[in-house]
Specification:
4 helices; 61% helix; 0% strand; ubiquinone; NAD; transmembrane; NDAH_ubi_oxred_su3_sf
């Protein structure tokens, strides 16, 4: 047999065996103590399933977007070694202008306000 087929067969067999054992091995005996939410040793004061504000997710997504912007602009110092370094500068400026316009739009729409 081919080495690739052998490695695939061993991987598939091991994965299947571990998946089957994982269903038989755990002992699940849920009771009221295990199913109750844990609040630092105190009795729960309310529901543990309170929804988050959508504004929290919006700010988190904006943070990830600007973090991605930094990752996109990271290779910019190496762009001056190209034949036409102004092209790299124009692309970086286009990314910055687009993200700045998006931030201004979110700010104008009130998406960054925590309280209404």
């Amino acid at each position: 047999m081919n080495l690739t087929v052998t490695v695939f067969m061993i991987t598939a067999t091991l994965s299947l065996a571990l998946a089957i054992v994982s269903f038989w091995l755990p002992q699940m005996n849920p009771d009221a103590e295990k199913l109750s939410p844990y609040e630092c040793g105190f009795d729960p004061l309310g529901s543990a399933r309170l929804p988050f504000s959508l504004r929290f997710f919006l700010v988190a997504i904006l943070f990830l977007l600007f973090d991605l912007e930094i990752a996109l602009l990271l290779p910019l110092p190496w762009g001056d070694q190209l034949h036409n370094p102004t092209e790299a500068l124009l692309w970086a400026a286009a990314v910055l202008i687009l993200l700045t316009l998006g931030l201004i739009y979110e700010w104008a729409q009130g998406g960054l306000e925590w309280a209404e």
